[in-house]
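Lecture 7, part 2: worked example. A protein chain together with fe (ii) ion.
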Amino acid sequence: MLKTLQRRSLSNDGPIETAPKFELKPPPYPLNALEPIISQQTLEYHWGKHHRAYVDNLNKQIAGTDLEGKSLEEIIVISYNKGDILPAFNNAAQAWNHEFFWESIKPGGGGKPSGDLLKQIERDFGSFEKLIDELKIAATTQFGSGWAWLAYKENRLDVGNAENPLASEADKKLIVVKSPNAVNPLVWGYYPLLTIDVWEHAYYLDFQNRRPDYISHFLEKLVSWEAVSSRLEQAKVLIAEKEKEDERKKREEEEELLTGGSRAQVYPYSDAEGIVE
Ligand SMILES: [Fe+2]
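Predicted complex, written out as structure tokens:
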């Protein structure tokens, strides 16, 4: 995700001061590479102006605050503040969402995934076509500005930060969700795999008010299922590491409890021997 760089600036006194700064990363293809579906003009505005403004504003907004020096993901989760959104949230989440969006698509994308990803889709949605239907519904019915997502949800029904974590969903499965404005599934503890930007700035120059057409073209011709597949693999690795760590902590606590328990039995014995006052 967005890299934190060291910003170098000369103060009037001479010494170089440094402060963390997020960098605007370009899409991994030329700005005209998504034509004719998404025009170069759209990319020039969408990436060159909108995305840039989120990153620039975030850097200004967090300078000198407690959020400076934190990762972008940390800033997003902290500033979401259980739905009672703090000022930095919108720029932070939009900076993250857009970089993730550019890397969700590629020239000559679309088609159908294969391998483990396809198996997982078929297990969780019944078929690839049903997943596409769900994504289309989420993206077209998001009222106003926002995002549609495919995400992976681990075994966590007690997501502390969630305003509405859809707690009735089964565990460790793919889900489709939509989110308003800048909100993304990181705030619910999900692992985002794919996103569709349904802000008007994403499609209006090319499709005007025909959002459903934009979504169909996006899914049929642009999605990088390779990116989705590698994100799913990463999510599973991270979850497995986390579970291993949780297991290790649990074992340590149990051992601690056991040791504490034997001590409790030693003391009365020592006491009886007159060793302890
Ligand atoms: Fe956007």
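The chain has a mean pLDDT of 86. Residues 46, 50, 98, 197, 199, 201-202 surround fe (ii) ion (CB under 6 Å). Keep this in mind for problem set question 3.
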